[in-house]
Design goal:
Distance between the termini: 46 Å
Strand order of the largest sheet: 1-2-3
Radius of gyration: 25 Å
Number of domains: 2
Largest sheet: 3 strands, mixed
Number of helices: 9
CATH superfamily of the largest domain: Cation efflux protein transmembrane domain
Shape: elongated
Number of strands: 3
Helix content: 55-70%
CATH architecture of the largest domain: Up-down Bundle
Strand content: 5-15%
Structural class: mainly alpha
């Protein structure tokens, strides 16, 4: 998947979160609402996360060198993992701490009561537009998969991260709107704490999901089953009657390492084997353009009977 779609979604999310963060902080200063403070910190965390994804994308474009002969593509996974940590600590844990403080020292929203409602409604609109951009950019890559499966199986971290963040932001705004509205109606500040706690739990769950998925990518995930099948089929051809075993690993979202032991006829000369390997590599690259690095080991075809 091209990074252009991910970059567009990241920039849309960054612009939305920066604007939303400022308005939420202003609303918190005017009202003292803990849910507004939790949401403001949430937006700051999301903004920092989008910047991390941008930095990761730029660093991943560095050329391979002697120290990193397979390139820097996996650095995008590292920055996505940092995003999960930031979301967990700065977003989730802070919101839970703020909820704890507000629950033990509740106070109603006495001034500027209309401000948090207006801010939250405006934030819902902006986050909705950001999510719409992310969905539009991710739809071609998602294909017929469900959104959950796309998030779980995508080898490119940017779009799944933005999709989860924007979806979490919309749900978090609903929690904050509920907490603030109930506080205004009942005069009981503990409802504000409930909204903050819900936001914190939501962010912790999203962070855990992101950490789990990016950890798997950092460890080195294989190609998708569809790509593995296409590579195996492409390897077989003239001079290569079968594939003995095949291993694949993503070196980055757009770069795939292929290592295979292929069978060659016993009567093949060295020139025949070299020609068969070159042809097999060409077929694999035509079938799966992500296969940038291909290492093939020839072996004699074993027969039984």
């Amino acid at each position: 998947m091209s990074t252009s779609g991910g970059n567009k979604a990241i920039m849309a999310a960054l612009a939305a979160n920066l604007g939303i963060a400022v308005t939420k902080f202003v609303a918190f200063l005017l009202t003292g609402s803990s849910a507004m403070l939790a949401e403001a910190v949430h937006s700051v965390a999301d903004s920092g996360n989008q910047l991390l994804l941008i930095v990761g994308g730029r660093r991943a474009r560095r050329q391979a060198d002697a120290e990193h002969p397979f390139g820097y593509g996996q650095v995008r996974y590292y920055y996505a993992f940092i995003v999960a940590i930031v979301l967990f600590t700065l977003g989730g844990l802070f919101a839970l701490f703020e909820a704890w403080e507000k629950f033990h020292d509740p106070h109603p929203i006495d001034s500027w009561q209309w401000v948090p409602i207006v801010v939250l409604l405006a934030a819902l609109v902006m986050e909705g537009l950001s999510l719409r951009t992310a969905v539009h950019e991710a739809t071609p890559a998602k294909g017929r998969e469900t959104w959950w499966r796309f998030i779980r199986t995508s080898r490119s971290p940017e779009l799944p991260v933005v999709l989860l963040e924007d979806s979490g932001a919309l749900l978090g705004l609903c929690f904050a709107l509920f907490g603030v509205s109930m506080t205004l109606v009942t005069g009981d500040g503990r409802w504000d704490a409930v909204g903050s706690a819900a936001i914190g739990l939501l962010l912790v769950v999203i962070a855990v999901v992101l950490a789990r998925e990016t950890k798997s990518l950092l460890l080195g995930e294989a190609a998708t089953p569809e790509h593995v099948a296409a590579i195996r089929a492409a390897l077989v051809g003239e001079g290569v009657p079968e594939v003995i075993h095949l291993r694949t690993m993503h070196l980055g979202p757009e770069e795939l390492l292929v290592a295979a032991k292929i069978a060659v006829p016993a009567a093949s000369s060295a020139a025949d084997v070299a020609e068969a390997i070159d042809a097999a590599e060409a077929r694999v690259r035509d079938a799966v353009p992500l296969a940038r690095l291909i290492y093939l080991e020839p072996d004699l075809r074993h027969t039984t009977g």
